[in-house]
Amino acid sequence: MSAASDYQLDNAWEHARARLATLELIHDPATVRRLETIGVGTGWQCLEVGAGGGSITRWLCDRVGPAGSVRAIDLDTRFIEGIEAPNLAVERFDLTASELPTGAYDLVHARCVLCHIAEREQVLDGLAASLRPGGWLFIEDPSDHADRAFGPKLHGEIMAKISEGFVANGVTTMEWARGLPAHLQRRGLVDVVAESNVELVEGATPGTEFLRLTAVQLLEQTIAAGGSPERIEEWQALLDTPGQWFGTWAQVAAWGRRPAR
């Protein structure tokens, strides 16, 4: 990831681990399904970029087994340093300041990382170059294209304001991911597959807790973008309503393979 000053969802925040746990609950099933589609298997050498709370790191360690390895990197590794796996290496790493090895990995995966990095195009170049022949690059990043599509009108209103505040720093983007398949093809990757999904969560569940915690962490930015504190409070109460369903931020996913020759 890029300089910590650009990152608005700091792992040092007191509720950061709880927010990451709910994010994992929502997004891990789709991520794991895609990793299984790619065919991650025994003996693979993997790079997990922006490892966050560590759920996918743990999955990869189990999947590749003792013959494989996982290198998990992040600007802040506090939540992955305690993972006990003999095939895991954890490292504090700034993608904008250090270079990855060339031709080293069978899989490179990053979820909700490149959207935070101003130099994302150059970073993506480096991620693609770090693949072995036949290796897979798998990127997942958020998009705001469905902010108003699912849930009550108030939910759409607040989601849109959170997104607007999120990107106001001029670094973060909620649009770049929409071009992910083309971004991978321009790096010479083949067999590119792409999809987008919006996970729906019911009120008064851990899924809506993810929405609430994200809004709390980005509250200052949301209000600066024109979000009304009263409307935000009303929305937070609405999130506690069982039987009411809400859309989360859309995810765009794309994966492609470096040609074997």
Features:
alpha/beta; 261 residues; two-stranded antiparallel sheet; seven-stranded mixed beta sheet; single chain; disordered N terminus; Rossmann fold; 9 strands
Account of the 3D structure:
The chain is α/β, with parallel strands linked by helices and 261 residues long. It has a domain at 4-145 and 173-202 and 249-257: 3-Layer(aba) Sandwich (Rossmann fold), CATH 3.40.50. It is built from eight helices and nine strands. It has helices at residues 16-38, 55-64, 120-129, 153-166, 180-186, 206-217, 219-224, 229-238, and strands spanning 45-49, 69-74, 88-92, 105-111, 131-143, 190-197, 200-202, 245-247, 250-257. The strands form two sheets. The chain has a seven-stranded mixed sheet, sandwiched between helices. Strands 7-8 form a two-stranded antiparallel sheet. Strand 1, helix 2 and strand 2 (69-74) form a beta-alpha-beta unit. The protein is globular and about 55 Å long.
